[in-house]
Design a protein that fits this description.
Number of helices: 18
Oligomer: single chain
Number of strands: 17
Distance between the termini: 148 Å
CATH architecture of the largest domain: 2-Layer Sandwich
Radius of gyration: 42 Å
Largest sheet: 7 strands, mixed
CATH superfamily of the largest domain: Histidine kinase-like ATPase, C-terminal domain
Structural class: alpha/beta
Number of domains: 5
């Protein structure tokens, strides 16, 4: 074979290879290659070989990329379907366009049964307004995520609590598409309910303890108060003993206040409610609040208009505001703002479902806020526990907020708190509203000298020292007294006494027969008998819920001689 033949064959081979590469994207063709010299042909062949290697390497990279993309797609599908939360995309009619397997499992349906169905089909009817309300809020905010809690329907099983993170994306034509992330929070709700039940049990235990302590402790305090008061009347102010007696009397009064706080904390405090205009009552309290918070804190009062009346004890309202003012002073560091706002409002069932302890109905809302340091939201569930504090134990404020909580719950109200670090604290207190009526006028009381003249009191008290103290006071006031240390003896005295008994003044908690039972026996044959119950025991067992609530007076131990005299006059002066 000649050199020309070899060269021709090389060119022919080169053309075939060039055509093969040309099919892969080369810019050369066979006509161009035929015109090349042998040296040029060899150079082109070399270039083509290098290009072929590059193409093969690129093809391998492409294959690896495709494999990685397929693996990533599989991982995405696994994560999407096996995520711990449900995911749904919905169209403008709230129909489900797409859902993951978790969403289907949460609702106990197949994915095919979800797609095409309206989301509201799987929401409890009573909670559908919550969903629509938050959807509209999303739309108004423009793709802003909104979170809500509601109950979803699970096929074949009871409804369950879920948290919905909802995002709505408005299109240019006004159509609303969106997405939902669904989390099962049933266990959290159960835990919250159990925590609320546990706290209620703890408060109930505290209430029983407080009641038991108060019954005996208040008897002793009554003795100390009464005898120290009698001693102060018998000793001149210049006498050295007078200051000592005054100190004893003052210490007993402070001890009595501590007992009242403990009873308020446990919802056992005696309440004397009346119809209040909340704005007017707060206006009367403002000077005291100003003294408590100081001049450096700005006090802002924003009264609402046309408030309904509230049935509440004005003394307990004073307690609430004083405690909140002291806390605000402490939280603001003696400078900042303390605000008070009132308004009428209605708590609906949706609100009450997400706020354990609240009851649907009409309320007057009292909002008290400060611009202080704020509280970690994680600590808010413990805020109303006795002696809980966010500071060092050595500066604990004691019973302050637990007293507020106890008073509100005792009166059928509700209290809510919101706070965050650096954003201050806001308390919303809801007082059940009542008809705006004037409280009934008090019966006119006769002149004390006329009342005591020829009036007979049957005194029943099983604590000897306390009975002797009250007996001294009644004799000094000019009353005729029949004293008995037991209900049985009181019945005998009443049966043997030939004159008229005007007033039964009796302790309530006594062994064998309590004061109410004694009153029932006596009033059956003494229908004109007036009643005055005295006790240091919890008011919800003894006070206005007692059997003679509409025709009897009540005085809480410990009491001063002046308080006792006033109650006797009130009881005897009743029509």
């Amino acid at each position: 074979m000649t050199d020309r033949d070899i060269e021709a064959r090389s060119k022919s081979e080169l053309c075939r290879r060039a055509e093969k590469i040309a099919c892969q994207g080369s810019y050369l063709n066979s006509a161009d290659l035929a015109a090349l010299s042998p040296e040029e042909s060899r150079q082109v062949l070399h270039d083509l070989q290098v290009h072929q290697i590059e193409l093969e390497l690129q093809n391998e990279d492409l294959l690896r990329t495709q494999e990685a993309l397929a693996a990533a797609r599989q991982r995405y599908c696994d994560l999407y379907d096996l995520a711990p939360v449900g995911y749904c995309s919905v169209n403008h009619r709230t129909e489900i366009r797409e859902a993951n397997l978790t969403a289907a499992e949460l609702l106990n349906v197949t994915r095919a049964e979800l797609v095409g169905q309206p989301m509201t089909r799987f929401i409890l009817a009573e909670d559908q307004d919550i969903y629509y309300h938050h959807r509209q809020r999303c739309a108004a905010g423009g793709a802003v995520r909104q979170e809500c809690e509601l109950r979803l329907l699970r096929r074949g099983q009871p409804p369950f609590w879920a948290r919905l993170n909802q995002t709505v994306c408005p299109r240019g034509d006004g159509v609303l598409n969106g997405s939902l992330v669904i989390s099962d929070i049933s266990e959290q709700k159960v835990s919250a309910a159990e925590r609320e039940q546990l706290q209620a049990q703890r408060r109930e235990s505290l209430g029983r303890l407080a009641g038991g302590v108060a019954h005996n402790y208040n008897n002793l305090l009554g003795i100390i108060l009464g005898y120290s008061e009698l001693g102060l009347e018998l000793v001149d102010k210049d006498h050295p003993v007078h200051s000592s007696l005054q100190a004893i009397h003052n210490a007993a009064e402070r001890s009595a206040e501590l007992t009242r706080q403990l009873l308020a904390c446990a919802r056992r405090q005696v309440a004397v409610p009346q119809v209040l205009d909340l704005n007017q009552s707060l206006a009367e309290i403002l000077p005291k609040l100003r003294q408590l918070i100081g001049e450096q804190i700005e006090l802002v009062m924003s009264p609402g208009r046309d408030l309904a009346g509230v049935y509440f004890d004005p003394f307990q309202l004073d307690q609430i505001m004083a405690n909140l003012a002291v806390i605000a002073w402490d939280e603001t560091g003696a400078s900042g703002t303390f605000s008070i706002t009132t308004a009428c409002t209605v708590l609906d069932e949706n609100f009450c479902r997400t706020h354990p302890g609240a009851t649907p109905g009409g309320y007057v809302r009292l909002t008290v806020g400060d611009s202080g340091r704020g509280i970690d939201p994680l600590l808010l569930p413990q805020l109303f526990e006795p002696f809980f504090t966010t500071k060092a134990e050595c500066i604990s404020r004691g019973l302050g907020l637990s007293v507020v909580y106890g008073i509100i719950k005792q009166n059928g109200g509700y209290i809510d708190v919101a706070s965050a670090i650096g954003q201050g604290t806001v308390f919303d207190i809801y007082f059940p509203k009542c008809a705006a009526e004037e409280p009934p006028p008090l019966a006119e009381t006769a002149d004390p000298s006329v009342l005591s003249r020829e009036k007979t009191i049957l005194l029943v008290e099983d604590e000897p020292l306390l009975m002797n103290m009250v007996l001294l006071m009644l004799n000094k006031a000019g009353y005729r007294v029949l004293a008995a240390n037991s209900p049985e003896k009181a019945l005998r005295l009443a049966d043997e006494y030939e004159g008229e008994i005007d007033l039964l003044m009796t302790d309530v908690m006594m062994p064998g027969m309590n004061g109410h039972e004694l009153a029932q026996k006596l009033i059956s044959h003494l229908p004109k008998l007036k009643l005055l119950f005295m006790s240091g025991y919890p008011a919800d067992l003894l006070g206005r819920q007692a059997i003679f609530a509409d025709q009897a007076c009540y005085i809480q131990k410990p009491f001063t001689l002046q308080e006792c005299a006033g109650k006797i006059k009130e009881a005897i002066g009743q029509v």
